[in-house]
Design goal:
The structure is a homotetramer.
Chain A (H helix, E strand, L loop, with lengths): L10 E3 L1 E2 L11 H11 L6 E4 L11 H14 L5 E5 L5 H14 L3 E5 L10 H14 L4 E5 L1 H4 L5 H7 L5 E6 L4 H11 L4 E4 L5 H6 L4 E3 L7 H12 L3 H10 L1 H10 L1 H11 L16 H14 L6
Parallel strand pairs in A: 1-9, 2-3, 3-4, 4-5, 5-6, 6-7, 7-8, 8-9
Chain lengths: ~300, ~300, ~300, ~300
């Protein structure tokens, strides 16, 4: 199991979007500018090249460039967790190596999913363990059924978690029962991160140590406050804030996704910009709906 | 919306099994005996003729007999919620009328599901509202996707909940995000009950007022304690007990279902007996597994 | 396996709707009138009390009445297959017994589905074999995933089919690969009936002997012709007719279901009438769409 | 719609595996050797870099190398259809451009799927049309729900098919009803290819012009014969062969997938070799099962 001096993940992380300029190229200055704003909050760190970072739409060079620019903007006391999971085990190993060289503190490795009929427990264990064997940084499992069509069950997670270099899971599936089981069976040193703000408080209630939350890109204060109220046993306040955040969280996640998250960032004074095709920009009428939702949620960001 | 003097549902309810004798007939004395044991706990009431009551395997006469026997054994200060949902709207109305005449305090009405391709929002609203219009007792929506294949979405629940005689929902789907949304959008007078002990604490954390829990048949003390710790802000204890109950809850719900619940009751000194075909009794090796799980959970019942 | 003198099922069957009068009672004269029209075609027989017969919305007395009236109107040389499958094994046995007494030639037994988590291969085999053991008429398996959420796999069907009194399957799932496998593995005496006209020709192409087709209620001539062209190796004509029937078949099955089938019957001069709640009548605009679809398909019935 | 001189796709295509050597590198000579064997059959052409070609496990350089080697081995009178679909529209355009430069006759473009919640009809139409606009070779839609979790519905396919440079679809979903609808609604110039041998005959029966069949890698003679019997109205023979091929087809597709296909090629004297991780080689006991299945199917290849 994990050694005592394992990387401590407790806290809140935004999975940051990758900004593009008008020509569709990675907008590195915009990325730096965004990180500087987020740095003003007590976030534990960042996930770079996650689903919201459009990892699967970037080429090899762009992936490294985004990691380099992000690392330069992220202070040493905040974690940079790099999304490095590819369909191929070898490509995952290589991207993990590169991310470590650039200064990532941990690698977030999604389940391969294309050959899902073959993604048996045995195959998944071997994939994660092979990656973890060769990685010089700790590995975090990334369970993301809405994108992969694969929802890891508790027994598979427990088996994968036996590797000493696999320190936790970001679970975006929303099954808090399973999160509780994982927390129970994998032991206290295996760290569970909620994958969406929609179930942050329920996940904390069954033992999650924090969350990787798209919402934290545009509402870092509120996400941090939900966790702090929870830690302080201020239960009513935690619940009120959790429920208040549901509409805005839905809008920027399963409702309208990355295009909405980027538009919301633009509306709040950050740089969001356009998503990459095949993703399409938010339509004008949905932009208006989003604007109303943001206003109702009373979001604003430190400048 | 609900009037101020609406039925208050806060609390824990076992959905009680229907016991059968060796010939397969309803065992009325066994039913009475079981209720007397449960009456020793601070349960808010009982669900009779729910999924664990094998409603769909009973004929018309048996359904009424079970309600009568249960009501006679349940004290007036505890609620009897009767499962009255049938595929047909008319049959649901009729069974609800009969249950009210027998003394049920509320009716639990499951979504009709056979013609699921036709079960649009409009159809479901009309079904529930027609039943609620004619019912002399309050109606509780029963969302049970594991049995019906239908998982009500939040907007449908909100629309159904606008009827003044529809006072709450038992949600067995396990999506606590949705429970939070319903709680948020339907207002504080619409009461959400968790449909499984596996997510009792997470559900309470987003605003549920209690739970209808198969586990409460065999672990009433523990189910009550989870809720009490939550109410007392004893967060660590609530979580520890919630996590401790997961294996035994799984065994008697989605793991092995009604046959396991009945066997567990036998093992704990109540009357469980056999399920009705097509349900088969628990196999011998699973009985042994169950015995171990019960011992590990350290369950025992007041006598 | 089946004896040589087993009931031969080859042919086309409409699963006939149960007509209701203005008060919602079973309209027995309308039922008789409808059957007289269908009797003019070379149909092999009828399915009474199937999904289109709204079996699950009828009470015990109504079920027997429908069977009696139908049998009186169906000539002795045409088969009456009675839908007798209930959630309970005992109730299925009882309804099968009653149907046989009324003169049904075979029983169509749907998979029980409420406790779907428990509907293992073992449970399903035992259910079907218990029913077949006690039935005085042959049993046909009814696989209807769109209504039950359960899709029997080939190995389960093969195992169920080993009983000598189980002579075939009506498969409404549409997986023609599986139909081919079943036909291959269960042997030539086990008879496969397509459960929807949408895949009649493909099913015949892999060995089905006919079909139970909602479309045959309103387009018996066309359904019979597809099969006849197939038997005559008139491949192009079979395909053209099969493709031509797709829109109207979709309308009265997965598109708008029983309400549309009944409305189409009204439009073609039969007695359709209203469905039972929770099913709602077809809306006015969909009625117009349906009228166009019927006209385009050039349907008319013998009088 | 498609011009009269559009590429004619009628016929059978193996989606060829990408062979790797002992070090895991692309084995170009083995690829050439395999193609020379297949060239002895009356196949219409080949799909290179499909799902069986492990496209998603190859890096950019390897993809081009495989296309080059395959094109050199494929005679000019046989088609090379290149799998060029990536998650990103831009990368799909680029790979399609490169494939055309190498001599591919058409591009097979799979549905992007990672952001499946965003893959609306509008997004998919725009993706396919943007790719088709810029492609110098015709585009074929690739519907592969078992890998992507996305199953294109008929109306989306029809809308995508309106582009004059989109000439057909390879549909691996197995819904032959839908294939018939597409064939009916998109018109005779839009060409449907069955995506699996398991439903080749049913698909032909509703209007498909051929198939891209993993089975054609190891049983080209049988796949060709099924289609020829169909064309010759030799219905019984077609069906017998179709049914006979089901077990072996299942083994190398949804049963055990690419690893089994490669092992079967080894067993039949071609070069199969190992799949790339995360795919694992077939276990020893499954190898024995596969050997029996191949023997029972009486497969052998021309040398």
């Amino acid at each position: 199991m994990v050694s005592n001096n394992a990387l401590q993940l407790e806290g809140i992380y935004p999975p940051i979007p990758t900004p593009f300029d008008a020509k569709g190229h990675v907008a590195t200055k915009a990325l730096t500018g965004n990180v500087r704003i987020w740095n003003k909050y007590e976030l534990r760190g960042y996930v770079v090249l996650g689903s919201n970072g459009e990892l699967v739409l970037l080429n090899d060079q762009e992936r490294l460039r985004v990691l380099e620019v992000a690392r330069a903007a992220i202070p040493a006391d905040k974690l940079m967790i790099a999304g490095t999971g590819c369909q191929s085990t070898l490509q995952t190993i290589e991207l993990t190596r590169q991310a470590a060289a650039i200064g990532a503190d941990a690698a977030l490795v999604i389940t391969p999913s294309y050959y899902r009929g073959r993604m048996t427990k045995e195959v998944l264990i071997q994939h994660f363990h092979t990656v973890a064997d060769t990685a010089s940084i700790p590995v975090i499992i990334y369970n993301m059924p809405a994108c992969t069509g694969i929802d890891l069950d508790a027994t598979t997670v427990i088996a994968v978690a036996e590797h000493e270099n696999i320190i936790g899971i970001k679970d975006s599936g929303g099954n808090v029962v399973k999160m509780g089981e994982i927390r129970h069976l994998a032991g206290p040193t295996f760290q569970v991160l909620a994958g969406s703000a929609s179930f942050l408080l329920p996940a904390l209630s069954v033992g999650a140590v924090g969350g990787v939350l798209a919402l934290a890109n545009i509402a870092p204060h509120q996400c941090l406050a939900i966790r702090q109220h929870f830690l302080d046993n201020e239960w009513e306040q935690a619940r009120a804030l959790q429920i208040q955040m549901i509409p805005v969280n839905t809008a920027v996640t399963r409702g309208w996704g990355v295009p909405a998250l980027k538009t919301a960032m633009d509306m709040l004074g950050m740089y969001g910009g356009l998503p990459r095709p095949p993703l399409l920009p938010l339509s004008e009428d949905k932009k208006e709906d989003l604007r109303c939702i943001l206003q109702e949620a009373e979001l604003s960001l430190l400048r």
